[in-house]
Batch of 3 targets.
Target 1
Amino acid sequence: MTEHERWMSLALREAAHAYDRHEVPVGAIVVHNNTVIGKGYNQVELLKDATAHAEMIAITAAQSHLDSKWLKDCCLYVTMEPCPMCAGAIVLSRIPVIVFGCYDPKMGACGSLYTIPEDKRLNHRAHVIAGVLDAESGSLLKEFFKGRRPGA
């Protein structure tokens, strides 16, 4: 197991928490100096908050832990490609590396529809590593939506 896979497996644990709570199963962690300093899972339904994505919760926790708005020496691991809102938060918090599991062809902003973190027009860029434990991330999402969509 690679280092990225090891960290992503922790993000998958967060996604499982979301799954158990009937949330879209996406999980995220922020790593700093080989330590998880922020973690989160989707809580949109629970909090009735469209911004309560796993990445947003993990970023907020990490910023609180470091008592800083900047996460310059951190890496974000998330089980699904970040959406435009989360990609914007990543840029604004100065996270230098994003590692994600499966692509999101409908909302993805780190390679699918947009490439916000690597946009040279912005004042900060993040390196994106895609596809780490993508099968595991994708299967959890497919299982979640299996009984929720008409015709599934």
Note: Residues 3-20 form the longest helix (18 residues).
Target 2
Amino acid sequence: MRGASIAAPDSLRFRYRLNGYQTEWHQTTGRVIEFQNLASKTVYLEVQSSMNGADWSPVVVSPKITIAPPFWLSPGGLLLEGGIALVLLSVTVLLILRYLTVRKLKEFEQEKLMASSIKSRYIPHFTNNVLNSINYLILHDSDRALEYISEFSSFNRRTLAALDKFIQPLGEELKYAESYLKLEILRFGDKLNYTVDVDERIDRSLPVPTMIIQTFCENAVKHGFFQKEGPGHLKIEVCREDGFTVLAVEDDGIGRRAAQKLKTGGTGSGLTIVGRKIDFINKYDKGEVRLDVIDLYGGDGKAAGTRFELRLSGKIKGTNNNN
């Protein structure tokens, strides 16, 4: 190549252009030229040399260079890419269908549970007892009658509000349970009293299963106090223990064994629904929900009541979060 000298190789420089891509010359002192991301076409490499950067040798043209398309643009590559895209699309569609199926199943099961819960609240004998008591008060104590009419209206309003809820804030659940107990006190009078103890660290907006505390209270009243001689006390307690939020209802009634012998009434549907709710939450929500029923005994070894504990780990999401 004229213009080059092997006597002073360090002074040798080149300029080049890739005919078909470039119109400007590019200079280099190296011996290797790299090109990247070139489109598929036929080109020629043109090269000149110089010792001073001013006087250049005649142009040397390379043989024809054909740049092949990358594999992913070749027929085989396009076919493979299309196959991969089809597989990914199929997997995506299957995942979406599975999600929708699970969600629909979840909603269906949840709706069944809510319907069962509402149906179990409107048990005829409870409504009849309340109305009979109010009717008695209308004749003997009109002021108290108005008070309990208002309370019964509040209880029914809260029941209806729970129609589309699988969960509700702890604060609402406590109000619902207290409304129920106030109506039972109308029937039992001084034989029934209750207290509510909520750890101040517990957030009352915490989502809990709807009607769960009220169901425990109803079970205590039916089976613990109905045949008890003398007054009975019921305690609602919400606390934190070993990483769990504990919803507890404790009574000092006659105990489960005595209640079974006396056949104190009820079908057990309330606790059955509680069990189904727990199964539902453990199946669809992260965390753990566990129910413990503890028989209490006095120092003399005799039955001294029952304690229901619902332990919640994690946050319940449910489907209908209309809180």
Note: Residues 118-122, 319-323 have pLDDT under 50 and may be disordered.
Target 3
Amino acid sequence: MKTIEISETATLPTRYGTFRIQAFKEGCREHLALFTDPLPETPLVRVHSECLTGDALGSLKCDCGQQLDAALELIAREGGVLIYHRQEGRNIGLLNKVNAYALQDRGYDTVAANHQLGFAADERTYEIVETILEHFGITTLRLLTNNPKKIESLKGIEIVERVPLIIEPNPHNEAYLRTKKEQMGHLL
């Protein structure tokens, strides 16, 4: 098992509300947890995979930034944890993600672009997520996701409800969302 370094907790006021924040360092990757204090008995949990282009730059090619916004609004209101999972581009990294974008510009869908670059459709793993949840003493939760792989990955946690996170498509991400549903099994 990898050694995980855990930061102190700090207060983080945001446009959604005030959260507590804590970092979890796994090798060279640093993940974040934003959480309400106190946590409800069955918290709302979002495992949000890093997406620099969507989360920080407002890309319309995906639904990531909008999902992050919606998740933080819900968690601020209902109580819970957002785990910011540092696996950019479904864990192919930023450079390869931009190369996948270039292939998408040439007509490849998101899955075919990853395959063209020599990657699986989704290279993410979720071991650190259970470690973070255990740190907070969370054994039962409501999972805010459309991704069945995230549901399946939480083997030691009781998911009492899957809360869908549906974002209205736009002309730039309609094909992307269709591919996620039809080829990756996302519950859209």
Note: The mean pLDDT is 93.
